[in-house]
From TrEMBL:
Transmembrane intervals: 6-29, 38-56, 68-88, 109-130, 165-185, 192-210, 216-232, 239-257, 347-373, 380-398, 404-424
Signal peptide: none
Protein name stated in the entry: Oligosaccharide repeat unit polymerase
Species, as recorded: Nitrosomonas nitrosa
Membrane keyword on record: yes
Length: 442
């Protein structure tokens, strides 16, 4: 099933109006915007708007209601930011956080991070032993006969592989610990130790993140690193560019190895950019556009589908199957998933009113996540945890609310369980008493 691109005056007008809403919302959040999960959510939502509206036929009832859902979500977000975001208080708290000293890792936390890294490595190896293969390794050997079937079998096959549990370690905890130790060794470990670490752990990180055949987790790891770097007091542009260039090379090379794209001579970079554009602006939006058409004539679930999704977080219990049904609707096969957006999911559960309520509640939750982040001590592990949390909060716009746990929130909570929650010294625990500091003291 395909969707046609419909770009006309009404489509362009809708896009411009909703992007204007996003711009106004971001302007309200401008202080500390680069470390604010609300801002990232709005940016990802804007990407969703740009990709979705050209796919809608506004003469179709289903597509018209989907456009209305996006508009309701957009205006609700602007309404929340304008009336309920305490700009002055958050500006003071952000200034305090920004002025707080950046730290590496205490000896205790260093040992804890090393422990988590070793544990993640061991569980990653165990996971691929249970699965029976690693698609990244097989791809390097040009030894993949049926990539799609092997990819699906690695996390939803007949043999239970515990992918949900292992993914928290290999896709979240492992990259966070890897990056934390990378920055630590770059600052204190000396050149030789740093390069030994890079030479040994970087290949394993790729083995872990790309072994299931999914490139998304490599992309997530890069974005976490980028969020961390752009919020450093001292920007390390060279290191950031090196990781960005490395990502493009790996993304393109792996795509070619898997046969997902044809890389013609002289067109390698163009092909990589084309694939990135497709992943960011087309792939998910197409699934959501068709998914809304699928659920449009179905009865509202009154929250039961979300209940199924959260219940499915418990090991051994099946969650909601809407992504599987949408996949079957599009491709004729139940085996596989096509996730729908947060707004499609909210409409399916609670109607258009549910879209507005969902947008309002989610923005309120993100505001308090930002408050929590601004109280964290600025050592390496905390800043990487915050960067990952910001990303996962933003990505929720592309799926149902329980997806944030699947993406990696459980992993972040486990890190906090091991290393503890360390706050900026003497910061006020009362929201209304937030005050700025200079030179590290109030």
């Amino acid at each position: 099933m395909e969707v046609q691109v419909n770009i006309n005056f009404y489509t362009v007008t809708c896009i411009l109006l909703l992007l204007l809403n996003s711009t106004a919302s971001l302007y309200i959040l401008r202080k500390g915007m680069l470390f604010n999960p609300m801002a990232y959510f709005i940016v990802f939502f804007s990407v969703q708007i740009l990709g979705t509206f050209p796919l809608l036929d506004l003469n179709s009832d289903a597509d018209l209601w989907q456009a209305a859902s996006l508009a309701v979500a957009s205006y609700t977000i602007l309404f929340f930011c304008f009336l309920f975001y305490p700009t002055h208080r958050f500006n003071l708290m952000y200034k305090r956080w920004k002025d707080a000293p950046e730290e590496l890792l205490s000896n205790k936390r260093l040992y804890q991070v090393v422990f988590l890294l070793v544990l993640s490595v061991a569980l990653t190896v165990l996971h691929y032993q249970i699965v029976g293969y690693n698609l990244f390794s097989l791809s390097l050997q040009a030894n993949v006969d049926d990539f799609t079937s092997m990819r699906l079998a690695s996390y939803s096959g007949d043999i239970h592989t515990g992918a949900g549990l292992f993914n928290q370690f290999k896709n979240t905890i492992l990259p966070i610990c890897y990056f934390s130790l990378l920055i630590y060794l770059r600052a204190k470990g000396g050149t030789m130790l740093f390069w030994i670490y890079v030479a040994t752990m970087t290949p394993f990180l790729l083995y872990a993140l790309m072994g299931s055949g999914q490139r998304a987790y490599l992309f997530f790891a890069l974005i976490i690193f980028v969020i961390f770097m752009i919020n450093q007091r001292k920007k390390r542009v060279t290191l950031l560019l090196a990781f960005g260039a490395g990502f493009l090379v790996l993304f393109g090379a792996y795509s070619a190895l898997l046969g997902r794209q044809a890389v013609d001579e002289g067109e390698g970079l163009y092909s990589v950019i084309e694939q990135l554009y497709y992943r960011v602006f087309i792939a998910q939006q197409t699934g959501s556009a068709i998914g809304f058409r699928y659920i449009y004539n179905l009865d509202y679930r009154l929250g039961y589908e979300w209940f199924e999704n959260f219940r499915g977080l418990i090991p051994g219990i099946k969650g909601g199957d809407l992504p599987h049904r949408v996949h079957e609707y599009i491709y004729g096969s139940y085996r596989g998933t096509v996730p729908v957006s947060l707004w499609v999911s909210a409409y399916y559960n609670f109607s258009l009113l549910g879209v507005a309520i969902t947008a309002f509640i989610w923005m309120a939750l993100l505001m308090y996540v930002f408050l929590f982040i601004l109280k964290l001590r600025k050592d390496l592990i905390n800043r990487f945890i915050a960067s990952a949390l910001i990303l996962y909060c933003g990505l929720t716009v592309f799926s149902h609310p329980a997806q944030i746990f699947i993406n990696g929130l459980f992993g972040l909570l486990f890190i906090f369980l091991i290393v503890g929650v360390s706050r900026i010294p003497r910061i006020s625990h009362t929201f209304s008493r937030a005050i700025p500091v200079r030179n590290g003291s109030p």
